[in-house]
Amino acid sequence: MGRVVEITDVILRDAHQSLMATRMAMEDMVPACEDLDNAGYWSLECWGGATFDACIRFLNEDPWERLRTFKKLMPKTPLQMLLRGQNLLGYRHYEDGVVERFVEKAAKNGMDVFRVFDALNDLRNLKTAIRAVKATGKHAQGTICYTVSPVHTVEAFIQMATELKAMGVDSIAIKDMAALLTPQVAYDLVKGIKTACGADTLVHLHVHSTTGVTLVSIMKAIEAGVDIVDTSISSLALGSGHNPTESLVAMLAGTGYETKLDMDRILKVKRHFAKIRPRYKHFMADYNGVDTEIFDSQIPGGMISNMVNQLKEMEASDMLQDVMEEVPRVRADAGYPPLVTPSSQIVGSQAVFNVLMGERYGTQTEEFSDLMLGYYGSTLGEKNPEVLAQAQGLTGKAVITGRPADLLKPEWDQLKSEAAALANFDGSDEDVLTYAMFPSVAETFFKSRPEGPKNLGKDPAKAA
Fold first, then answer.
1. What is the per-residue pLDDT for 287?
2. Which of 246, 253, 213, 251 is nearest to 231 (CA)?
3. 190, 221 in Cβ contact below 8 A?
């Protein structure tokens, strides 16, 4: 028997988030759960990211109930989520007490593996969440957001891995959200982490498929000793999504590496989602091929779609190319943050303003000014001092170098009293946390919750 490579399937979360705007209804996932639970996965990613937002904003579905249902239907396989460190699942920093309570409630409702990341790779923003996960006895996975810039080197990422290891994480994830990880770098990075952190350190690789090179990157990472890789069953794979699970299994044949997956179970899941996928065609981008230009622009697919919508609303769609050229310049001025939620939206919006106003940084979004001034954390690169001075002048705020959450006062009691004043608030900590993540959306959701979940899929025969 060859060395076993463990697999995490993302079909219940990131696959449909990347391909169909996180709109898949729970009732379309439930029929696949028994086969997924018995297929032999290391974990199944099914929560976090944009699912919380999409559940209450579009699907009239309680995200906590979704988690409990997954746990009930898939008791054998660990469930995994994506957590934005001090941002949790929202777009701002929360004080430590809220972070601790969120993790505690997620664990209690069925979450087993917490992949914790920070958009700027500022490890100070991971400490509270990782400590909270460890306190529940669940699996804390510290995450490196992979990106490419003059300051992001293999050595810098390896150093980050050693710091995560020192924080007591149970595993280290390499998260490549824009499919920028080329094969040789994948090999060097995994090998370097294993050497620096110890061969027994669990390393987990997450890549998207957008640039067309990352299935080879997975193979090189396996040769370097990676323990676990993320894939998605083929009926919801490729494009801005992920590499197909079945392709990885086939690729390993005769290599001395193998998975423990039950392919009969996986083929049943594949056929199920192949039937479901056409019903959500209206949420899917027309473009679903390979895009190697991302190696130059480094703009993830979701970020491009956000900018296109912004420009449409401003009746400036013809300026897309100018904005795409401005994004790398804004990113450099901001100290080369990785482009992942929420930094991708912040940099993208500022690039739109710079192009539309014809004046760079004369107008700044509040979020961009905060990013420049340190209120999201520190970046690996130096910030442009002129743009930093403009941010100070526009906001009157001071530059901070400490951990942003240290400036926050306890807020649980206030969040609880505000949530309690809303119609249909059920009195639970889970409802308070839903309100904390998305206050205005939660208010609407609580009112409509008694109506039950919505399915936004359409019959292909009737969908225009």
1. 56
2. 246
3. yes
